[in-house]
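Notebook entry, structure prediction.
Reason for the run: the old model in the group folder had no record of what sequence produced it. Starting over properly, with the input documented here first.
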Amino acid sequence: MFIVIVGEEGGRANEFEQALADFGLGWDVRWLPDAAAALALPNDRPVDVVVCDLRVGNQQGPALLAQMRAHHSDAVRILLVDEGQGADLSQALEVAHRLLRKPLDAGELIEAVESVIELRELLDNEQLKQAIGRIGSLPPPPRLYVELTRLMQDPESSSAQIGEVLSQDPVIAAKVLRLCNSAYFSAGRVVTDVRAAVTRLGLQTIQRLVLATEAFSGSGVVNGIDREAMQDRALRTSRLAAQLLGGPSAELAATAGLLAEVGMLLPGVRIPGREPEHADTGDGPHYAEAGAYLLGLWGLPMPIVEAVASHHEPSRMRMSGFWVGGAVHVASALVCDTPVDENYLRAVGLIDRLPRWRSMAEELAEAA
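New structure, fully documented this time:
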């Protein structure tokens, strides 16, 4: 693992070396003073991770990451930001896969890099990594979703604060209210205030609604897929997956179900079963794996990434038994009217539940 850190205080290198030794990690970390040194790295030495400040000398960090992408397309790009720099991140989120706080913390970097290693082990496909790396219009991490995640991790955050953040984006606020008052979530009383929506639905549901709105933003048809229809399927799949799994992992299943088809919006992916002009030609990565790789780079938990990657083929999952991936497979198949892998359900001993699950899917469809 070759990690390049640009612009950070090199005097902290000993601290990082000790942290790596404590974790038993033999990673090669190179501290470079400026952008020129980073761009001078030989192209035949693969860079696995590049980390830089929002500003490196006279150059903007996002511009450096964009240049590094051109030379090392499959490198994970991490940007370091100070508190209060959120307003400056619109350009950054177009080229950075992860955002970490400044000053750089060894533990946070190790956790971020290890999650990437786990992701690459899951999706060990060189063609996939290169294809994703070459996509210039790779969707950035959803800005509002990232901000909500940060607030939810702060025990002092209130529903009023979260409502205020949502209200700063009129489009998001309007769509959240519309979704809150839809048949999926409505309890019969119209909600007209964003803060009331937060209180009524709960933080995790609001977070998923925002994620759906940002992940499927835009209008019209992409890759033969209608975005509005996709979002409708995503919401139903999310609710059904949570109901099928239940228990403490229901939230993971709900988020994975929400994002199962997000890879279809990426250019150059294979989408089996599309119309002839969008047919499975054998070129490019499968949309499920491409979407999972993107979510992994965004920093979503590995159970979600694995479920998205394998929802169309549950027998590939590393996790034995029926867990997040199994619930998303069944929910997605029932909502999208595609075949359920009955051999998989027999293997995990749950084939007898399929008729009931079909009824649950039908009830959700009638409520839409």
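Summary: The CA atoms of residues 148 and 165 lie 8 Å apart.
The old model has been moved to the deprecated folder.
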